[in-house]
Amino acid sequence: MQPEEVLKIVKQQDIKFIELWFVDILGRVKVFTITNEELPEALESGMGFDGSSVEGFARIYESDLIAKPDVDTFKILPYRKNTAKMVCDIYTPEKKPYEGDPRYCLKRNLAIAQKEGYTYYVGPELEYFYFKTDKFPEPLDVGGYFDYMPGEDAGIELRLKTMEYLAAMNIQAEYAHHEVAESQHEIDLKYDEALRMADKVILYKVLVKEVARQNNVYATFMPKPISTLNGSGMHVHQSLFRGEKNAFFSEKDEYHLSDIAKHFTAGILKHSREICIVTNQWVNSYKRLVPGYEAPVYICWARKNRSALVRIPEYKPGKEKATRIEVRFPDPGCNPYLAFAVMLRAGLEGIKNKYPLPEPLEVSAYEMEEIERKARKIEELPGSLIEAIEIAEESTLLKDILGEHIFNKFIENKKIEWDIYRKQVTDYEIKRYLPLL
C-alpha cells in the first residue's frame, strides 16, 4: 500500500481518527490518536512523542522520538466508529531506527535470515481465559477440549465475534475452539511472514480483550491464572522458505525434514534456556512450566509426544509447504516481536554451526526417572524467572539478538520484577506457616 492509497481510503470511508500503535519492550500496546488532518504529516515525517515514560525506551535527557506509521498495517477498526489504526516504527530525531524499538529488533534479525536467502514464517496458537472479572479468576464454564454443549462452552459467541472482527480487517483465522482448561479458549491465525504476524498478534490480543469487555467479561493472556488448571501457551509453528520452496521439507528423510530443518530445530533446543527469558518473560510464566499440565519442561523433540519442547507435526502427502516445527514453550504474555526474533536466531545458529539433532523422545519425559533423563542428557528449562535471568545474562547470543539497549533494559526490568515478587508474603505462606511456626 502507498501513502496516497491510505489518504484516499480515509477520505472515502470518512475516517476521522487514526490510532498510531507501537509496543514497549514488554510487548504492551501503546497508542496515541491523531485526526485525519494530521495524517499527511504523520505519513511523511512521523509524529514526535516523549519516549521517557515508555518502558525500556529513552532516558529523560534523550526522550524525543518519532513514531512513523507503516502504511501496510492500516486497518479500519470495526469496533470503533470512524477510526483506523496503523503500527509504527520508532525513529530518533536524526531519522535513524531506534534501537529500543522491538519491531526494529525483529526487522533487524529478519534481515539476517534474508541475507541467507530465507523468509521466516510463523503460525502462533495463542490460548487465553475468559473470566467473570479482572479481580478474581472465576471461570465462565466447566468445558474442556473442543467441548460445545451449553454450560460447557460459554465463549463460543465471544470467539465468533472476535473472528468476525478479524475477518473485517482481512486477518485470516484458521479455527477456534474451547481449550483443555475450564473457560480456556484458542483462536489460531493462519501462518504469515514473521513481521506481519507479530503485528497481527498484537491486534488479535486487543480484539480478544475488546470483545470480552463489550460482553462484560474479562479476557486474559496470563500464562497461569489458576494453579490447578492448565496454563495458556503460545505454540509457534514455524518454517523457513526460499522463495516459494519450503526449506524444511525433504522427500527422502524419514521425518520429511531437511538438514536445514534439523539444524534449525537443534538450534532452538540448544539455546532454549538462554531465550526463555524472552519467550516466557513473567514471574507467572514459570508457574505454567511445570510437569503435569501439558506445558513442556524438558528440552527434547518428538513427533507424537506432546510433552516435548518441539513437536514435528505429521507430514501429509502433497502438503510440502506445511512442513514445519512446533515450538511449544512460549506463552502468550510475551512480546511477539522479540519472541519471534530470538527463536529465529536460535534456529539460524543451528544452521550456521550445523548443530546435530538428537534422537526424538517419543515417551513422556515427565514419567522418566531423573537418573534416566540425566543419562539421556535431557536438560530442563529454567524453573523460575530469576534462573532465566541468570542464564540470559551470560548469553552473548541473546545480547546480539536483542541489541545492547533492549538487552540491558529488558534484564533490568525483569530484575526489578523479581525483586518485587520475592518480597511478597503470599497466601500460601500464611496458610502454610502461620499455624506451624
For this entry, give a set of tags.
2 domains, single chain, Ubiquitin-like (UB roll), 19% strand, alpha+beta, 12 helices, 6-stranded mixed beta sheet, 16 strands
Topology:
Blueprint (H helix, E strand, L loop, with lengths): L2 H10 L4 E7 L5 E7 L3 H7 L1 E4 L13 E6 L5 E2 L6 E9 L10 H14 L3 E13 L24 H13 L4 E6 L5 E6 L2 E2 H21 L3 E3 L13 E9 L2 E2 L12 H21 L5 H4 L12 E2 L7 E2 L13 E3 L8 H17 L17 H6 L9 H9 L2 H27 L4 H7 L4
Parallel strand pairs: 1-6, 14-15
Antiparallel strand pairs: 1-2, 3-4, 4-6, 5-6, 7-9, 7-10, 7-11, 7-12, 8-9, 12-13, 12-16, 15-16
Helix pairs in contact: 3-8, 4-5, 6-8, 6-10, 8-11, 10-11
What this model shows, in words?
This protein folds into 2 domains: 96 residues, Glutamine synthetase, N-terminal domain (Ubiquitin-like (UB roll)); 322 residues, Glutamine synthetase/guanido kinase, catalytic domain (Creatine Kinase, Chain A, domain 2, 2-Layer Sandwich), CATH 3.30.590.10. It is 36% helix and 19% strand. The protein is built from 12 helices and 16 strands. The strands form 2 sheets. Strands 7, 8, 9, 10, 11, 12, 13, 14, 15 and 16 form a 10-stranded mixed beta sheet that branches. Strands 1, 2, 3, 4, 5 and 6 form a 6-stranded mixed beta sheet that branches. The mean pLDDT is 92.
